[in-house]
Amino acid sequence: MTHDSDDEISLLTADGEALAADLRVPAAVRAGAVVCHPHPAYGGDRHNGVIEALYRALPPAGVACLRLDFRHQAARTATGEGVAERADVVAALHRLATEVDPHVPLFLAGYSFGADVALSVGDDRHAGWALVAPPFRYSGSPRPAGGDPRPVLVLAPAHDQFAPPHWVGETTRGWPDVTVEPVPMADHFLVGATAQVARRVTAWVLEQAAAGP
Q: Which pLDDT band, with edges at 50, 70 and 90, does 14 fall under?
């Protein structure tokens, strides 16, 4: 299915939560990506500046893109921050998979809290993770830390207040397939660097898609 413009859609999770989302599917699809936003408690939603940059950059390059709003606070479980949101990401991944051909590789992308949530999702339908400024403090242990071999890109802002590049490098040491790249002259909020981040994530997704399984 091809969408000529942004479509606002509704997602239904396995546990019955209805989520707002946006979907854009280009005419020639080379890959797909679910994009996850920062922490809702600090104002994060699917219209965050970094998420907006990703959502605008990916489809013109042939990457079908779905961005979602995580469930409301009242609907979250008491099992730990980021845990309930995994079901949100799985619902988004399921919807995106129905919008593209089965051979199209799908990726999970996220910024800050959204990166941590995405990294904890191990659904077989996605081919890897593109993470922007992950703080590595939500949703439990990252999947690659347990040996998941799927590729990971981590963009670490040079002056990140929560997870600077050297700490990210130590945290991801031993992951089977990880690339850590600094974002020069940027802090966690990436003011002035959103376009650069979007270009790099887009290029990485296309590289991985071209490389195949």
A: very high
- Alpha-carbon torsion 54, 59, 62, 63, what sign? positive
Backbone angles phi, psi at 35, to 5 degrees: -115, 130
pTM, 2 dp = 0.94
pLDDT per residue as tens digits for the range 72-115? 876 665 556 788 999 999 999 999 999 999 999 999 999 999 99
The contacts of residue 82 (CB under 8 Å, 6+ apart) are 113, 116, 117, 120, 138, 139, 140
Residue 71 main-chain phi, psi, to 5 deg: -60, 155
The SS3 of residue 166 is: helix
Cα 25 to Cα 2, 3, 13, 63, distances in angstroms = 5, 5, 21, 7
Domain ranges of the chain: 7-211
Q: Which fold has domain 7-211?
A: Rossmann fold (3.40.50)
What is the spatial distance between Cα 30 and Cα 142, in angstroms, rounded to a whole number?
Answer: 27
Q: Are 71 and 40 in contact (CB under 8 A)?
A: no
